[in-house]
Amino acid sequence: MPTYRPGPVSLIAATLVALFLLMPLLAVVPVSFTPTRMLAMPSGELSLRHYRALIEDPRWIDSILLSIRIGIVSSAFSTLLALSFSLGVWMFQPRFTALLIGFVLLPMVVPPVVSAITIYFLLTSLSGVIPWFGYDTWLGVAMAHSIMTVPFATVLILVALSQVDRRIDLAARGLGASVWDRATKVIMPNIKFGIATAALLSFVLSWEEIGVTLFITSVNAITLPRLMWMGLRDNIDPSIAAISVILILLTVCILFTRRVVGQNPKG
């Protein structure tokens, strides 16, 4: 089968497009070293004061830890829901499968503002019954994030299930395996990478979620994206540039590690 390689013009065009997309990210790096109290390019003098502020200011540490906690709980809950639904649809093939899948995917297609308002009224109603699981609580935020990430996790798990040979499930069923054994010992081991990908994507989506979070939080559950948004809206804090650089470096390290591990799976 012939292999097609891009020509020099295509490589140059792709490089220019990549640089154009990366320029806003690269511009954040020098801004993070500014010695001033406002967002500005450094003029000769560099300073690490805004990186120190990330460590010295407890708000940043608290918001990072809160975002991690919410992301883990939200990822676990949304992955569990998506896995249960996907396994049920795949194993039992109900009559209205397409309608059920469309219903689960609704949060993906509904405008985020509509979802945010709906979840806001839900959580404010729950606050009167369960104060620790309502509006402006970290558990409430985790539940809201789960609602928004379940569709994405469902899509990934359904794609993984589409690659599984249904005959292995039929064989296990013919040998007398229970539904639980078929799901946990036959099907799930064959889609473990799809489950892991769904969990990771759910965590990432929860980590960077800001639209819904603005509607359902006030002063107690301040996640990292909300704190960054408050810094841009209220006082243009250059520490936002510093945390942005750290997040960019973390992302680059994760992608580089994944590439190295993918090229050397036995290493």
Can you put this structure into words, describing what you see?
With 267 residues, the chain is mainly alpha-helical. It has a domain at 44-228: MetI-like (MetI-like fold, Orthogonal Bundle). It has 13 helices and no strands. It has helices spanning 8-32, 49-56, 58-92, 97-104, 106-109, 112-127, 138-162, 166-174, 179-187, 192-208, 211-216, 224-235, 239-263. Helix 1 crosses helix 13 (239-263). It is globular.
Helical content band: over 70%
Secondary structure tally, helices:
13
On the 0 to 100 scale, the average pLDDT is: 85
Low-confidence stretches: none
Sheet with most strands? none
* Secondary structure tally: strands: 0
CATH architecture of the domain at 44-228: Orthogonal Bundle
Distance between the termini: 30 Å
Structural class: mainly alpha
Anisotropy-based shape: globular
Order of helices and strands: HHHHHHHHHHHHH
Observed structural traits:
MetI-like fold; 267 residues; 13 helices; mainly alpha; 0% strand
Give a topology summary:
Layout (H helix, E strand, L loop, with lengths): L7 H25 L16 H8 L1 H35 L4 H8 L1 H4 L2 H16 L10 H25 L3 H9 L4 H9 L4 H17 L2 H6 L7 H12 L3 H25 L4
Compose a concise summary of this entry.
The protein is mostly helical.
